[in-house]
Amino acid sequence: MLGAAHRMLVALARSDAPMSVGEIAAAIGVDQPRASRLVQGAVEIGHVRREADPDDARRTSIVLTDAGRAHLEEARSMRRGSIETALAGFSDEERTQFAALLRRFVDAWPA
């Protein structure tokens, strides 16, 4: 799962509380209909579930499931392995230089 669907799972994992579809849309930079489709797809594969909001029964909260957390951990592990493979031929000095340049690049990225 890549792109907006992955960003949705990451946003849910980072959130201190369940999120509404509107909150998910804002967090990942998509419109509400797109967020609703992403949630539906994630519900169908078991990565998230819908729950009634205990404070407002008309509102639905989206909750990351254990399967969704496992999916994120697997994706992180795969990325980590890919990064380690890509950096295997770098010396310690080159890794330090690369990290500094990458940090500078990220800091300069337009918001």
Comma- or semicolon-separated keywords:
Arc Repressor Mutant, subunit A, 5 helices
What's the Cα radius of gyration? 18 Å
3D shape: elongated
CATH class: Mainly Alpha
Architecture per CATH nomenclature, i.e. the level-2 architecture = Orthogonal Bundle
| Category by helix and strand content | alpha+beta
Q: Tell me, rounded to a whole number, the average pLDDT.
A: 94
Compute the number of helices.
Answer: 5
- Uncertain residue segments: none
Q: What's the arrangement of strands in the largest beta sheet?
A: 1-2
State the total count of DSSP E strands: 2
**Domain count:** 1
Q: Helical residue percent?
A: 55-70%
Question: What is the CA–CA distance across the termini?
Answer: 24 Å
Overview of the structural elements:
By secondary structure, this protein is an alpha+beta fold. It has a single domain (1-111), classed as Orthogonal Bundle (Arc Repressor Mutant, subunit A), CATH 1.10.10.10. It is 65% helix and 14% strand. The protein has five helices and two strands, in the order H-H-H-E-E-H-H. It has helices at residues 3-14, 21-28, 32-44, 66-87, 92-108; strands at 48-53, 56-64. The chain has a two-stranded antiparallel ribbon. A hairpin with a 2-residue loop joins strand 1 (48-53) and strand 2 (56-64). The relative contact order is 0.12. The mean pLDDT is 94.
